Amino acid sequence: MHQTIITLSTGEEIHTKAPEQQILEHITNNQGMMNKAFVVIGGIHIATAHIVKIESIEQVDEFENPDQVEQAEESEYSDPEEQANADVSPNQVELVEQELLEAMQTRDIFAMDMLMHDDFVFINHEGSYVTKEMDLETHRTLAVRYTKVSSTDQQIKPTKDGAVTISRIHLEGQAGDEKINGDFIYTRVWQLIGEQYQVIAGHCSML
Question: Which candidate among 17, 56, 77, 205 keeps its CA 20 to 30 Å from the CA of 133?
């Protein structure tokens, strides 16, 4: 059986059963140039700029000798909490965080809808309680328009089934008649829902 390995600039390898040609057709145009900033493969968000190699290999049997079987059996009895934390990839969380920031700047309602949990709640810098629908509506109606959204000093703290991100974010744009131009500290709680990371809660403070 064949499988495809996607190697990222971080050295991380993503293994998938999707054919190499199918992946290439999905992320490139007719001239062979990347035409997507992000791609989701096997539930994993990948920044195409981080892809350095895509190759197909012949998959060998998972267990070739008794020692491998014994090691696999031992892994089944590992601490569930430790295993859950090990499954959380900071790289994946960093990618979905960046994807959300890009969606905010480009007013990509579809992407924001996919990245935000239906029960998402947010407390803004004025202390106001904002739901997912309220947040999306401000972008649909252009009540809030961002011309620049950039992140620095990001910290990612893995949790049992997701991660907490703490980022310094510079915002420029317009909110009603008021201009936005300042730095904020954003805290977001991401949770792995099935194969999709979604933000379930957040808060920001103005610096």
Answer: 205
Domain ranges of the chain: 2-58, 90-206
Q: How far apart are CA 140 and CA 147, in angstroms?
A: 15
Q: What is the helix (H) or strand (E) element at residue 180, kind and residue range?
A: strand 178-193
| CATH 3.10.450.50, domain 90-206, yes or no | yes
| Sequence-ordered alpha helix ranges (H) in 34-190 | 66-75, 80-87, 90-106, 109-115, 132-140
15-31 residues labelled b (16+ CB within 10 A) or e (exposed):
ebeeebeebeeebeeee
Q: Which amino acid is at 118?
A: D
Given a contact cutoff of 8 angstroms between Cβ atoms, the answer to whether 202 and 188 are in contact is yes
pLDDT in tens, the chain (207 residues): 667 888 887 777 877 777 777 777 767 766 666 656 666 665 566 777 778 788 888 765 554 455 554 554 444 444 444 444 445 667 788 888 999 999 999 999 998 999 999 999 999 999 999 999 999 999 999 999 999 999 888 899 998 889 999 999 999 999 988 999 999 999 999 999 888 899 999 999 999
